[in-house]
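Continuing from the previous page...

OK, I double-checked the sequence for Ion-translocating oxidoreductase complex subunit B against my notes and this is the correct one:
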Amino acid sequence: MDLVLVAVIALGAIGLVSSTVLYVCSKKFAVKEDARIGEVAELLPQANCGGCGFAGCAGLADALVKGADAGSIEGLFCPVGGQEVMGKVADLLGMAVVNTEPMVAVVRCNGTCANRPRIAEYSGLRTCAAMHACGAGETACGYGCLGCGDCVAACQFGAISVNPETGIAEVDEDKCTSCGACVKACPRGIIELRKKGPKGRRIYVSCVNRDKGPVAMKACKAACIGCGKCQKECQFDAITVANNVAYIDPAKCRLCRKCEKACPTHAIVSVNFPAPKPATQPAASVGAANVEPVNEGEAKQ
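Thanks. Re-ran it with the corrected sequence; updated structure tokens here:
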């Protein structure tokens, strides 16, 4: 028999046996995917930002389906899709979704060019991570915003930008989805996700400088000096001072703004509050001011 024909028959036989084995294995060890996972994934925004705690929307969809089978999807939330998308997912899975307060990214730094003057010039790789690795950066504050825009590059929604006048990152709360990408990108940890608050109003300490008061003030005029005046003023135990810097707990804060008035360095910032009404004079004084002087002769008449 021709050797070529023998080789062809042998290879054909090996291929036939291998394909049969693979077919049997594929049937025996097949993993069936729940059709609901694909349906849930279609409802999600497919941003794959990681804000939900999973690598992507597919991971969240799988977790939601498994949670529904276990009887609860509490703790699973898509920050990009928000309450609307989670409501649709809950309806699909026949579950109740827990109402979650909207969050927004907050840049806890008020070290503008006026408050935090530059004392050096950095000429290396223009990223926050690289500059932070080299030291304090271009200012004396080793805790504040570096302004290179790592957070800007990380945001997929165009919700954050660096103000060219102040040199500090700013968040557009209308675009922010609270995915947390900017929080992870900041090497100094100055960006925080906080509750958006009623009518978008919130109060926070715009500083993370942990140096002692005199050192912090030397580096930045608007630094928190850890004096504790805000903590003493707060009646709701919403403020704590640790490592020379104050922190306001959004869960306890009642937005009374007394701490803001008590802060000597104006390190506490309030957002979206109405402008204070102009002070008015008492009615008695106003009336007295409008009375014209009477001539003595006219008074006798």
